[in-house]
């Protein structure tokens, strides 16, 4: 199993450009998440999904959109990139919440630089 | 809403020294608690977690953590650190109250072990 994969690994954008980050998991997990990691701020949840076709806002959703059209994929979109969105983006997935205490499995991250 | 505090932002230890990283959370109900580790250049992975039962939890690579409910703490310990333990450590809390409750991460503690 590949686990959680992210595409691309690194990207440079100019202010105002758009892009989509792709996350894929092969563990048949119901839940998927997008986080951003910034120095001194830890991981902050951007959006999450509790199942195919559903999405919800996390802690810092402004400037981002997401879609979960297929259970195994979770896309994060930036419609008009801003320098404040320079960060490392991590995708994660976990199994059904009802069991409690689920481990999140993280992807390798995407480094995004917005100039 | 829950929150997580990691008081040590950067810790430097010599090999064989003992380690204790503090983690305190704020939430009045039942919680699941996690420690994740991020080695240089790698993605986050689970170190250990507390779900229920014995408050002393043992994880991989000789790490352990003790859940002290009265102190709202989940400190991470290791009796003798190695150079390979150099990494960033994140504490996380997940309230368990039925339905989906998101995981909140602390800001992380960077551990540097000097040979």
Task: Using brief descriptors, characterize the structure shown.
heterodimer, A: 115 residues, mainly beta, seven-stranded mixed sheet, four-stranded antiparallel sheet, globular, B: 115 residues, six-stranded mixed sheet, 12 strands, 0% helix
Polypeptide structure, described:
The complex is a heterodimer of chains A (115) and B (115). Chain A is mostly beta strands. Helix content of chain A is 0%, strand content 53%. Chain A has strands at 4-7, 10-13, 19-25, 31-38, 42-51, 54-57, 65-67, 73-78, 87-94, 105-106, 110-114. In chain A, the strands form two sheets. In chain A, strands 2, 4, 5, 6, 9, 10 and 11 form a seven-stranded mixed β-sheet that branches. In chain A, strands 1-3-8-7 form a four-stranded antiparallel β-sheet, with no helix packed on it. Chain A is globular. The model of chain A has no long low-confidence stretch (mean pLDDT 92). Chain B is mainly beta and 115 residues long. The chains are: A mainly beta (115), B mainly beta (115). The interface between A and B is medium-sized, with 23 and 26 residues.
């Amino acid at each position: 199993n590949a686990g959680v994969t992210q595409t691309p690994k690194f990207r440079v954008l100019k202010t105002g450009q758009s892009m989509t980050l792709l996350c894929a998991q092969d563990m048949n997990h119901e839940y998927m998440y997008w986080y951003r990691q910034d120095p001194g701020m830890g991981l902050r949840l951007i959006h999450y999904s509790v199942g195919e076709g559903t999405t919800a806002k996390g802690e810092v959703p402004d400037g981002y959109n997401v879609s979960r059209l297929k259970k195994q994929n979770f896309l994060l979109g930036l419609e008009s990139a801003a320098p404040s969105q320079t960060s490392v983006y991590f995708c994660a997935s976990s199994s059904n919440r009802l069991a409690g205490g689920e481990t999140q499995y993280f992807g390798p991250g995407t480094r995004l630089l917005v100039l | 809403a829950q929150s997580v505090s990691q008081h040590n932002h950067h810790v430097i230890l010599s090999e064989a020294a003992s380690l204790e990283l503090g983690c305190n959370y704020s939430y009045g109900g039942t919680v699941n608690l996690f420690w994740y580790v991020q080695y240089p250049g790698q993605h986050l992975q689970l170190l250990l977690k507390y779900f229920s039962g014995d408050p002393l939890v043992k994880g991989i690579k000789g790490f352990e953590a003790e859940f002290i409910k009265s102190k709202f703490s989940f400190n991470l310990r290791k009796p003798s650190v190695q150079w390979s333990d150099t990494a960033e450590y994140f504490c996380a809390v997940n309230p368990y109250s039925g339905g989906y409750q998101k995981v909140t991460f602390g800001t992380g503690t960077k551990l540097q072990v000097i040979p």
